[in-house]
From TrEMBL:
GO terms for cellular component: cytosol. InterPro entries: MTH1187/YkoF-like, Thiamine_BP, UPF0045_domain. Belongs to the UPF0045 family. Residues 3-92 form the Thiamine-binding protein domain. This is Thiamine-binding protein domain-containing protein. SUPFAM superfamilies: MTH1187/YkoF-like. It comes from Streptomyces lydicamycinicus. NCBIfam families: MTH1187 family thiamine-binding protein.
Length: 103
């Protein structure tokens, strides 16, 4: 499964990068495949391990802010691995090859 999530502290002002870095640090230290972009951090693994990492990332932000906003989206697809890479590669292949959309 792939989970894309965003965790932000509430009530700490506009500069939240330091808090978000605490959450991303938890994800990166988990050892699971992950990517962070301007809006979300995506992590790939089995349900229990991914959700545990998300929970710990939220806790890291909550420890310093008291109130947290969490947005989460999940792609639950048993048997698929390396989805973080393969999904993007598929789109890039269509863009490069000028693939025709399916009807």
């Amino acid at each position: 499964m792939i989970v894309a999530f965003s965790v932000s502290p509430l009530g700490v002002g506009e500069d939240v990068g330091e808090y978000v870095a605490d959450a991303v640090r938890v994800v990166r230290e988990s050892g699971l495949p992950n990517r962070t972009d301007a809006m979300f951090t995506s992590i790939e693994g089995e349900w229990d391990e991914v959700m545990d990492v998300v929970k710990r990332a939220v806790a890291a932000v909550e420890a310093r802010s008291g109130r947290v906003s969490l947005v989460l989206k999940a792609d639950i697809r048993p048997g698929v691995t390396d989805g973080l890479t393969s999904k993007v590669e598929t789109v890039e292949r269509y863009l490069t090859e000028g693939g025709t959309p399916r009807a």
